[in-house]
Design brief:
Blueprint lengths: L11 E3 L3 E6 L6 H4 L5 E9 L2 E2 L4 E6 L5 E6 L4 E5 L12 E3 L6 E2 L4 E5 L1 H7 L5 E5 L2 H4 L4 E2 L4 E2 L5 E4 L1
Antiparallel strand pairs: 1-14, 2-3, 2-13, 3-11, 4-10, 5-6, 5-9, 6-7, 7-11, 8-10, 12-14
Length: 159
């Protein structure tokens, strides 16, 4: 009965978007590929919008709407960065469904994305999903071996 005290519950992080899963080291941006932002992976979106990967709270919404930061209930901080160099789009192609401070649950719509616009105007639509506090958390992060993701269904990381 007291043994649960020593065993931390695992947190499952679900795919925020449907697409092809690639290693973070394959992202064509050194900030992500060299894990400067943290451990994680990336998804090359095929369709759909961006959905919440965990139960938690929105702690950051970039003014240009291209990135959303989330704190999971266990304290894990997750950054979903939609595309590369998308900050230059100044919010065009994105429609927010949440704001900072909102409580979220897996599968909840966070952001509507016009992928056709991004494909035409951004460097890349590759979408990194990183644990920004992975270095200081000391917790083990397991990445999926799946090659494809279904938003809200595929577990892409376990902490």
């Amino acid at each position: 009965m007291g043994f649960k005290l020593f065993k931390k519950e695992k947190t499952s992080i679900y795919a925020p978007v449907q697409g092809e899963i690639i290693p973070i080291t394959d992202v064509p941006d050194p900030v992500f590929s060299q894990k400067m932002m943290g451990e994680g992976l990336a998804i090359i979106p095929e369709q759909g919008n961006i959905y919440a990967p965990v139960n938690g709270k929105v702690i950051l919404v970039a003014s240009t709407k291209h990135a959303i930061g989330i704190r999971a209930e266990d304290g894990t901080e997750i950054l979903i960065h939609v595309g590369l160099e998308t900050v230059a789009l100044n919010g065009v192609g994105f429609e927010l469904a949440v704001q900072e401070g909102d409580k979220i649950k897996p599968g909840q719509l966070l952001l509507e994305v016009d992928w056709d616009y991004l494909k035409e105007h951004a460097k890349s639509i590759v979408t990194p999903v990183v644990i920004t506090n992975s270095a200081e958390s000391g917790r083990q992060i397991s990445l999926t071996e799946e090659k494809r993701s279904v938003a809200g269904e595929t577990v892409i990381m376990t902490i």
